[in-house]
Amino acid sequence: MTDEQRHDLKRVRLKGARFDGGRLPIDSLVELQNYQAVVRIAAVAEWRLEHPGEEVPSDFKSSVSLAIESIDDGSADVFLAFEQHQVYVHYQAEAQDVADAVIVAAYSDAEIPILPALSASEDTEFREAVAQFGETLRPEQSIEFYPGGVGSVPVTITVETRVNAVDRLSRIEDFLVPPDQVPQPTELDKEEQSLVGRITALDAEKKKFTLVLSDGEELHGRYPKHPGLLDDFRKVLNSAAEGPLTRVTGALQMKNGILYRFWETSRVEQVHFDETAWGARLSKMATLMSRWDGAAAAQISSESLEKAQMILRAVDRAEIASPGVFPTEDGGVLIEWADATGVRSIEILEGGNFETFSMKFGEQEGAHSSTHDLSVAIRFVEAEKA
């Protein structure tokens, strides 16, 4: 099996004389069963986040199963893969990431994640399953667990390192809170939404990505139903400092009202703005989520932002007074000049149409018109100079 074929496999390497030559003693198989148990419990938590109040399907746990793909010489270098159940494939991938994060935390100084969708007994079962990983090891034996792929830096589990990990995992008091501080059940909402940021990480095999928002927050997402987006992601992949501004659209999950992840992504598009004060203003408006006004405001559409940039370029060319530029609740952009003599404005609607308005001081009624034609809108702007 080539390294490329192993890219998406889970690597668990048992080291020591007992495992030389790729030997895997029967009683050591429990280590792989322990890991599978951890992933299955994490998968249940993922299911409940998606289906609050529903019963977990009877075949769910048994469908989240791992199989040994190969065992290499030099030690029992085991490569695992999911026995794919298409209906539950999303939960398998997410559960494995969660399980791996808990194992890494248990063997480091990181805070051990809590799975909020689990009951108290299930949470105890989950941590006990993590603690049991490595239970068959003897002195001078170890397990190298590779959380980030077959070539990543491994977590080393030994008789000695397990002592601290098991202690951390078994401290029940760390997971308890006073009765008056018991958190509310996790609520996971999902809606079609767009966010603008920069793509900083991409896993083509798992069809996952990382989006860094304007405030530095990292948001993870996936695109398993739209593999054709890979080329779009590759075009915008870069660092948070240098990457192009990118709008990602899809089924966005919110956990208790807080951004959580893109469960499924349907569209990726680069957002271009001039390196000017106007460009910076429009870039900021592009990052607004729906309900940015705290109520029912729509996201500012890509088309209205693009047309607004064209209008503002005309403003600069005509060397006229700088207007105010504002987002509108309907997902458009308002460009407005207002002073003691009156008011003139041009609103770019969500779909890209233009609405113009002008009214001089003392007039009872202003002049209003609509147009699809960019040149007509630009002539309206240029008339401001006169």
Question: Overview of this structure, please?
Answer:
The protein is α+β, with helices and mostly antiparallel strands and 386 residues long. The protein is built from 9 helices and 15 strands. The strands form 3 sheets. Strands 2-3-1-4-5 form a 5-stranded antiparallel sheet. A 5-stranded mixed barrel has the order 6-7-8-10-9. Helix 1 packs across helix 3 (89-106), helix 1 runs antiparallel to helix 4 and helix 8 packs parallel to helix 9. 31% of the residues are buried.
The overall number of domains is 3
Oligomeric grouping of the chains: single chain
Shape: elongated
Number of strands: 15
Residue share in helix:
25-40%
Radius of gyration, in Å, reads 28 Å
Q: What composes the largest sheet?
A: 5 strands, antiparallel
Order of helices and strands: EHHEEHHEEHEEEHEEHHEEEEEH
Which stretches of 5+ consecutive residues score pLDDT under 50?
A: 172-186
Please, how many helices?
Answer: 9
Measured by DSSP, the beta-strand proportion falls in 25-35%
Mean pLDDT: 86
- The N- and C-terminal alpha carbons lie at a distance of 74 Å
Structural class: alpha+beta
Features:
elongated, 3 domains, five-stranded antiparallel β-sheet, 386 residues, 9 helices, alpha+beta, OB fold (Dihydrolipoamide Acetyltransferase, E2P), five-stranded mixed beta barrel, 28% strand, single chain
